[in-house]
Structures are given as structure tokens and as C-alpha cells.
Design brief:
The complex is a heterodimer of chains A (about 300) and B (about 325). Chain A has eleven helices and no strands. Chain A has about 300 residues and is mainly alpha-helical. Chain A has a domain of about 210 residues: MetI-like fold. The radius of gyration of chain A is 22 Å and the shape is elongated. With about 325 residues, chain B is mainly α. In chain B, about 80% of the residues lie in helices and about 0% in strands. In chain B, helix 5 runs antiparallel to helix 6 and helix 10 runs parallel beside helix 11. The chains are: A mainly alpha (about 300), B mainly alpha (about 325). Chains A and B meet through helix 5, helix 6, helix 9, helix 10 and helix 11 of A and helix 1, helix 6, helix 7, helix 8 and helix 10 of B.
Chain lengths: ~300, ~325
């Protein structure tokens, strides 16, 4: 759960002589060029694109109903006829369950990130732009929420609201809010005092336009980094909650639930456990790599070689 | 130094107040009438009323909050519904288990993370760095509970190298205690190890570029002296901060690992509390966790100021 790896290195890191301008300011074309120049970025983005596509098309692609049981055909290994990824303890088709599980994972990532951004982005921008007591109060609250262990906080929220997927996504989204708040706030602060903003204001540019033309583009790259890290965390968190029985309710498929059910099959076969495990690991890996790729392509001190 | 401690205290106390308020406010997230919800669908109106009175839900919100804080300060966190014992007693009972697991995980994290980070930083950009960085990237992505399940199956069930599940207190023998914590500790340590390695890699690579390292080379110091006496000493400081932040992660991460390994610690208590809609227990656990995190970050900050005079003044 590398939710924190997007945040800057610890205070007091011996002097990385950072550029005084913010990390986010790179010409778009150079950014795209740098980003595509590394194979691992393309691979990660491609992987996530394919997973998204598979998730969207699951109802048409799945060879079987993910819920239909066929006990005599339980514990089939991968590459069995008619069951490409085998079957689980109840004889359900693992491939179909994986495809529908991808829908749940994608949905969890999308909804929780949207909730987190909805709650964090605008207050963060305002706190950064306005400063003063507004910033002081909101920052203190955000810091406090950040002190709660993320998974435990999500569990507590699910615990009071009821255990189902919607509440799990909402809970993860609430955990994200202070992180988005911080990212946006700091990138807004970093440009607020720039002379070109002052210049722009002095020639009569409206605040809305300044935010749109100068502040927003600066916040975009760090925001994308945070979004990809958050997606990875959301997938892990959904899997953890569903594993514990606090997310998706049975018999609906989710990668986390499949791990839980795969445990029952362990006596016969490891596949129902290994397959969702790999899917989670690869998806989270792709999200993290994408985040790293975007950050490195932004051209801060870690970016250029 | 004293000024710095006071300043940090001045920041942390309001955070504790906000944290307790947010924790208590969880009750507001309960859909519908909290008392009905907690008492359960089949409860009689009398039972619902009893619950409402027990929890003080019939009083104004701020009065409820004041009572909650007053109780928390004196160590009274209410009574758990699922276990029917005081939450504070449960916490006291479960804490040594989770603390043992966390300590072993932290030990593994340091044993894995520091060498990986040093190698990656020393050979930044070269093959050893790529291997080490690849491993840490993987460590951050693999779901630790899936790893735990596989380790149980392969190392415990099939090979019989470790007991599969369970926990023995230290009083039954250090060996018995430790051997049962090896697999869960390893599984839990992965992410922390990866974070330590990443941070150490960055700061070692950075210190090796500094002017004083060139001076050290010019003086004719050997490579190990430079790495371990000059670079490591500076590079380890950010790692201390990472460790402080990871305590929060470990406290949350134990829930799933404890479920996987059948360990009855705080994490298991949390899961049971959530499954049982046990509001006092949920609030007690989360309040405890956030207070531990805040105190840890205070300790980290102070030790940081102690180690690095520059931080004291800012």
C-alpha cells in the first residue's frame, strides 16, 4: 500500500538541489515524449487499458455465468477444456469470475478516487490559494485524518455504515480525500507567489482564468501521480476488505473474495488462489509504475538522467 | 530543543482533539437511527431504548462527545457488544499480540530493507540497483495477505517448516513465540521493507553525490568507510521518518494478516467489531490506533530534532 510514496521525501532529506520552479511545469509535448520513451510506462498503461477493456466487456467475454455452480467440475486446473483458467471449489468458472472481479476492482478504483477528489481537490485548491486561517484549519484536519491507519479507517467507516461494496468504495474515498487535498494545496502554493501570476493579474486577468491557465496545469501532473497511486491502493483495499468479508458480499465475484474462497481449495489446487493474487499484484504494480512514470516524466530532479 | 518539543506538542494536541472528534463522529455515519441499528433488526423497543441509554444516544451530540472524551481520558471506552467486556480491557488483552507481530515485522523490514536500499543507492542506475528497485516495486504491489496464504500453504502445510497458524505468548518460550510470528511477520514486513529501501536508496544516492564525499575520496578513504561512516549516517535520518509513518500502516495492515494467520490480536478484534456493528469497540480501536500514531510521530519528530540541529530551529 504505497499510498505515501507519491508524497515528497521526508523532511530534512539532505539537500536535493531542487529546481525552484515546480515539478509540474513541463511542456506537454516534452512530457509525452519522455513518458512514451520508457517501455515500462507504455507497458503499464497498456496493461491497465486492457484490464479496463476486459472489465467493461466482461458480460460479453465471460464464457460462463460467474455464479453458476457445477460441483462435479470443481477444482479443474487451468487450460481445462471449456474452462481456460480452471474452476473453483464450487465448480464456478475462474475466468468468468476474474472478468467480473475486474469490474469490481475497476469500479472500486474509479468511484473511490472520484469521491476522494470530490472531497479533496477544491478545498485543497482554496486552502492553497487563500492561505490564512482557512488553510490552517483545513490543513490541520487533513493532517489528522492522515494519521488514521488507512485500512483501519476504511474498516471503521464500513463498520458503522454497513458492509457492502458501495460503502467500501465510499470509505476508501474518504481515506483518499486528505491526500488529494495535500497534493493540490502544495502545487497551488508553489505557484501562488510566482511573478508570472502577479504579471497576469496586473494585466487584468480574472481569477478564474488565472486558475484555469496557470494554477490548474501546474497541479495536473502531481494530481495524476496521486490518482494512479490511489487507484493501486483502492484495488488493494477493496481486495483486503472483500477478503475480510467487509466489501463485496458473496456470492458476487471480487478478486479479494476469490482469494478467500481460493483458500478453501488449497488442499486440491493453488490456482484459485494464485490467479487472483497475480491479477491484484499486476494491477497495483501497473498503477504504481504509471504514477512513477508520470512523476519521472515531469522533469524534477529524479526525472532527468 | 525545549522550544521545539513545545512547538510540536502545540501541534499534536489539537490534532488529538480533532482525531477524537472525528472518531466520535463515526456515529453520525450510521444510516437511520443508531440505537435501532446497533441493537439489531429483531430488537424490541425496550432493548433499543436500553442501547440508546447505555450509549447516551438520547443526549445532545456535543454532550455525548464530552462524555466520550471524559471516558477515554480515564481509560473507559465503553463496553464491547460482541465480547461483552470493556473495550479498554480488550485492547489491553490484544495489544501484546499485535505488538509482537508488529515488532517482528519491523525487524524483518529493517533486515530486508536496509541492505536492499544500501545496494540500490550505492550502485544507483546500475544492475544491482535495477534488481533491488524491481524487488521493492514488486513488494509494494503484491497483496501481502495473498503472499501470506501462499507461504502458509508452501512453507507450513507442504514443507512443515513453520506452524501454519496461531499465536503463543512470549511467556510460553521465546522460540515458540517467535516461530509462529515468522511467516505473518514476513508477510506484513514486505511493504515497510520496500518503503525503507526506496527511501534509503534515494538518500544514499544523494549523499554520495555531495561535496564532502568527494573530499573523503580525495583524502583516500576506502569505499566501505565512505559508505558506512559518511553516507549512511546522513542517509539513515529520513529512514527514521519513514519508520514513524509506517507504524500507522502496520497497525492497519495487521487486520488482514491476523485474519490470514488466525492470530487474535487488535486486527482480529477490529474485524470482529466491524462485522458485529460494535460501535464502542470500533471507536475504541480507531481512537487507540490514531493516538498511537500521533504519539509515534511526536517521538520521531523529537528524536529527529535531537539528531539534526537544523530541524530544531525551523
Amino acid at each position: 500500500m504505497s499510498l505515501e510514496s507519491g508524497t515528497p521525501t521526508a523532511p530534512g532529506t539532505p539537500g536535493t538541489p531542487g529546481l525552484t520552479e515546480t515539478a509540474g511545469r513541463v511542456a506537454p509535448r516534452r512530457f509525452v515524449h519522455r513518458f512514451l520513451g520508457r517501455k515500462v510506462n507504455v507497458l503499464a498503461a497498456g496493461f491497465l487499458f486492457v484490464v479496463t477493456l476486459l472489465a467493461l466487456l466482461a458480460p460479453w467475454l465471460a464464457p460462463h455465468d460467474p455464479l453458476t455452480q457445477d460441483i462435479p467440475a470443481a477444482h479443474l486446473p487451468p487450460f481445462s477444456p471449456d474452462h481456460l483458467l480452471g474452476t473453483d471449489i464450487l465448480g464456478r468458472d475462474v475466468l468468468s469470475r476474474m472478468l467480473y472481479g475486474a469490474r469490481v476492482a475497476g469500479q472500486a478504483a474509479l468511484v473511490s478516487v472520484l469521491i476522494g477528489m470530490g472531497l479533496g481537490v477544491i478545498p485543497g485548491a482554496m486552502a492553497g490559494y487563500l492561505g490564512g486561517w482557512y488553510d490552517a484549519v483545513l490543513s490541520r484536519i487533513a493532517d489528522t485524518v492522515l494519521s488514521f491507519p488507512p485500512l483501519l479507517l476504511a474498516m471503521a467507516i464500513v463498520g458503522v455504515m454497513g458492509t457492502n461494496l458501495t460503502n467500501a468504495m465510499l470509505a476508501i474515498g474518504l481515506v483518499f480525500a486528505p491526500r488529494f487535498f495535500r497534493v493540490v494545496r502544495s502545487s497551488v502554493i508553489s505557484v501562488r507567489e510566482e511573478t508570472y501570476i502577479e504579471a497576469s493579474r496586473s494585466i487584468g486577468t480574472s481569477t478564474a482564468k488565472i486558475i484555469r491557465r496557470h494554477v490548474f496545469p501546474n497541479a495536473l501532473s502531481p494530481l495524476i501521480v496521486q490518482i494512479s497511486l490511489a487507484c493501486g491502493f483502492a484495488i488493494l483495499a477493496e481486495a483486503s476488505l472483500s477478503y475480510l468479508g467487509l466489501g463485496v458480499n458473496p456470492p458476487d465475484p471480487s478478486w479479494g473474495r476469490m482469494l478467500q474462497e481460493g483458500r478453501e481449495s488449497l488442499f486440491y489446487t493453488k490456482w484459485p488462489l494464485v490467479i487472483p493474487g497475480i491479477a491484484i499484484a499486476l494491477s497495483v504494480l501497473a498503477c504504481n509504475l504509471l504514477g512513477d512514470g508520470v512523476r519521472d516524466s515531469m522533469g524534477d530532479e529524479r526525472g532527468h538522467k | 530543543m525545549l522550544g521545539m518539543i513545545l512547538r510540536r506538542l502545540g501541534m499534536i494536541v489539537p490534532m488529538m482533539v480533532i482525531a477524537s472528534f472525528l472518531t466520535f463522529s463515526l456515529v453520525l455515519l450510521i444510516p437511520g437511527d443508531p440505537a435501532t441499528r446497533i441493537a439489531g433488526e429483531s430488537a424490541t423497543p425496550e432493548q433499543v431504548e436500553q442501547v440508546a441509554r447505555d450509549l447516551g444516544l438520547d443526549k445532545p451530540f456535543l454532550v455525548q462527545y464530552a462524555n466520550f472524551v471524559q471516558g477515554a481520558v480515564t481509560g473507559d471506552l465503553g463496553t464491547s457488544y460482541t465480547y461483552n467486556v470493556p473495550v479498554a480491557t480488550m485492547l489491553k488483552e490484544r495489544l501484546p499480540v499485535t505488538l509482537s507481530l508488529t515488532m517482528v515485522a519491523l525487524l524483518f523490514a529493517l533486515l530486508l530493507g536496509i541492505p536492499l536500499g544500501v545496494i540500490a543507492g550505492r550502485y544507483a542506475g546500475r544492475l544491482p540497483d535495477r534488481v533491488a528497485t524491481g524487488l521493492t516495486t514488486l513488494g509494494l504491489a503484491v497483496p501481502n495477505f495473498a503472499l501470506g496464504l501462499l507461504m502458509i500453504q508452501i512453507l507450513a502445510v507442504e514443507r512443515g517448516m513453520f506452524p501454519a497458524t496461531g499465536y503463543r505468548p512470549m511467556s510460553e518460550g521465546l522460540g515458540e513465540w517467535f516461530i509462529r510470528l515468522v511467516l505473518p511477520g514476513l508477510a506484513l514486513s514486505m511493504i515497510v521493507a520496500a518503503e525503507i529501501a526506496r527511501q534509503l536508496r534515494a538518500s544514499i544516492a544523494d549523499t554520495l553525490r555531495q561535496d564532502y564525499m568527494r573530499t573523503a575520496t580525495a583524502k583516500g578513504l576506502s569505499a566501505p568507510t565512505k559508505l558506512f561512516k559518511h553516507s549512511m549516517r546522513n542517509a539513515l535520518m529520513p529512514v527514521v521518518t519513514v519508520l514513524g509513518m509506517q507504524i500507522a500502516y502496520l497497525l492497519g495492515g495487521t487486520a488482514v494478516i491476523e485474519a490470514v494467520f488466525g492470530i487474535s490480536g487488535l486486527g482480529d478484534f477490529a474485524v470482529q467489531a466491524v462485522l458485529g456493528r460494535d460501535l464502542p469497540a470500533i471507536q475504541g480501536i480507531i481512537l487507540f490506533a490514531v493516538m498511537v500514531t500521533l504519539v509515534m510521530s511526536l517521538i520521531v519528530d523529537i528524536s529527529y530534532g535531537y539528531l539534526n540541529p537544523k530541524v530544531r530551529r525551523s
